[in-house]
């Protein structure tokens, strides 16, 4: 039997993977979007989306532009290497 902590970590990991897939799909359809546009478009919690966006930037999957202030919000887009293809674990599609 798995411990509560193990189950919670696995649950968070699955949630992060689902949010990653949603963000990548959205950016494949809309090449550049602000954090607010992404959050509104993927229907996940704001805090989780923000966490996953920063993770994807640190992994090199996304590029972030802008200064993150009013009038110049961060804009996210797929990095050059990932712009043409990625595999969605949710549906097994390559876009």
Mean pLDDT: 83
- The CATH architecture can be named as Orthogonal Bundle
Please provide the count of β strands: 3
Largest sheet features: 3 strands, antiparallel
Spatial order of strands in the largest sheet: 1-3-2
List the secondary-structure elements in sequence, H or E. HEHHEE
Q: Helix amount, in percent?
A: 40-55%
Q: Uncertain segments of ≥5 residues (pLDDT<50)? A: 87-95
By DSSP (H or I, 4+ residues per run), the number of helices equals: 3
Separation of the first and last Cα atoms: 38 Å
**Which class of secondary structure composition applies to the elements?**
mainly alpha
The CATH topology turns out to be Arc Repressor Mutant, subunit A
The Cα radius of gyration reads 14 Å
Tell me the number of structural domains: 1
By CATH reckoning, the class would read: Mainly Alpha
Silhouette: globular
Spell out the blueprint of helices and strands.
Layout: H1 4-29, E1 33-34, H2 35-42, H3 46-59, E2 62-65, E3 75-78
Antiparallel strand pairs: 1-3, 2-3
Helix pairs in contact: 1-3, 2-3
Explain this structure to me?
The protein is mostly helical and 95 residues long. The protein has one domain (4-82): Arc Repressor Mutant, subunit A. It has 3 helices and 3 strands, in the order αβααββ. It has helices at 4-29, 35-42, 46-59; strands at residues 33-34, 62-65, 75-78. The chain has a 3-stranded antiparallel beta sheet. The chain starts with a helix and ends in a 17-residue tail after the last strand.
Summarize the structure.
The chain is mainly alpha-helical and 95 residues long. The protein contains three helices and three strands; from the N terminus they run αβααββ.
């Amino acid at each position: 039997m798995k411990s509560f902590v193990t189950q919670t970590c696995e649950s968070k990991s699955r949630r992060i993977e689902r949010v990653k897939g949603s963000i990548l799909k959205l950016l494949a359809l809309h090449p550049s979007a602000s954090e607010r546009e992404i959050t509104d478009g993927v229907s996940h919690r704001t805090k989780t989306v923000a966490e996953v966006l920063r993770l994807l930037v640190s992994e090199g999957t996304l590029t972030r532009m802008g200064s993150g202030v009013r009038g110049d919000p961060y804009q996210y887009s797929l990095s050059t290497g990932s712009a043409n293809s990625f595999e969605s674990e949710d549906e097994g599609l390559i876009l």
